[in-house]
């Protein structure tokens, strides 16, 4: 029976360095392998990009969510943004079987195509499955508030009130509005905030000042919550990843 879960959340910036000069998805894969996570919530995952595939010699032949699979971690991909050169979206890597999943459109304008990736995971020995939502919200506050309401509605519709729940991703929430909404409406706590008193500063990665990324949980004790800085992370995405260890209550 799995008593603890190692969770990571990471906006990988489409597998490119912060200024889009270098292909770093190979290094992202190696860094994630070293964490030995059970579940990884990924944002800005490149499903395909014709121009970059021609530009970079070592561009993976498979979509990035499949390329980032390793060991017994398998992927689910929710395509959100589609353009003439390809598409990108959210993805989940899971050590546990995904018994069902859905990608829910929360797009509010044509410049920010967003989705909620909901996966239901069969964790050995648990009486109930784990519900995992991978999230990437808009830049404008009024849009984020609408998208948070859609997230809450989706959780009420699809997740039993007593089921274990993790919601993670890039909330673009530098105003820190999401925690109040989600605590009140779906009874989660933010992992880093619960242990350290405030959400993690995760952007920009080399000198983080904004709290954009979050991991919200329900049904767990939080044993560890870190924002991962330093090598190798500062040479990869423009975001720093979040990492937490949870123990099932």
From TrEMBL:
GO molecular function: catalytic activity
Alphabetical list of Gene3D superfamilies matching this protein: Endonuclease/exonuclease/phosphatase (3.60.10.10)
Coiled coil (residue ranges): none
A GO cellular component annotation in the UniProt record: membrane
BP terms from Gene Ontology: GPI anchor biosynthetic process
InterPro entries: Endo/exonu/phosph_ase_sf (IPR036691), Endo/exonuclease/phosphatase (IPR005135), GPI-anchor_lipid_remodeler (IPR051916)
Name of one Pfam family that matches: Exo_endo_phos
Domain of life: Bacteria
Domain Endonuclease/exonuclease/phosphatase stretches: 8-239
Protein name (record): Endonuclease/exonuclease/phosphatase domain-containing protein
Organism: Amantichitinum ursilacus
